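Minutes, project check-in

Agenda point 3 was the complex the collaborators sent over. CS summarized: two entities, 234 residues total, and the question is how they sit relative to each other. Sequences were read into the notes so everyone works from the same version.
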Amino acid sequence: QVQLVQSGAEMKKPGASVKVSCKASGYTFNTHAIHWLRQAPGQRLEWMGWSDVGNGNTKYSQKFQGRVTITRDTSASTAYMELSSLRSEDTAVYYCAREYITNVGQLKIGVHGMDVWGQGTTVTVSS
Amino acid sequence: DIQMTQSPPSLSASVGDRVTITCRASQSISSYLNWYQQKPGKAPKLLIYAASTLQRGVPSRFSGSGSGTDFTLTITSLQPEDFATYHCQQSYSLPRTFGQGTRVDIK
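CS then shared the predicted structure for the full assembly.
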């Protein structure tokens, strides 16, 4: 079946970096974009960025620009999200999710929504 | 960025009740609006995409409507397994943005 499996929970100290992986199976990896999102306790879901897996293009939320790097390894059907200069406010559950993208002019439209999600990776930042 | 505003933030309901949640976008997003259900400790699950299309396997008591800026999720005859948090999300443009969520709990 189609699934995204993420790496395990991480505990990090302030100032460190964390790299979370998201392995896809059950579908052709380069047919869908992979988004990275996070959810801090009591907060709404927050989009961090995405990888257009087919061509390797990425786009990041302005909030995380300069601190987040999203990459993918098509041979391993795996996407990665690295967040640097961690602070306590980065404590959250991090998710990857796939979305089929339709290009309409400059728009990247997800007609079918984020239909498959990883199970989530808890990242705790504490001294 | 497109701002998504959901209401109410929470509601209490009984099994068998009809529940309606609304979502408003800060600009027109055509019909590119999705609804997710999330239970504690779990990833969100896609319920409805393109404002009104039920994802495969989702019970027909869930329905969505709307276009432009105003959207609605309706659950007819609430079931015990429906107590959860519901999120709306626009997929019209980047960055993808979500509402703040509506928690549905047992009255």
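Noted in discussion: Chain A has a mean pLDDT of 96.
Follow-up: revisit at the next meeting once the mutant set is ready.
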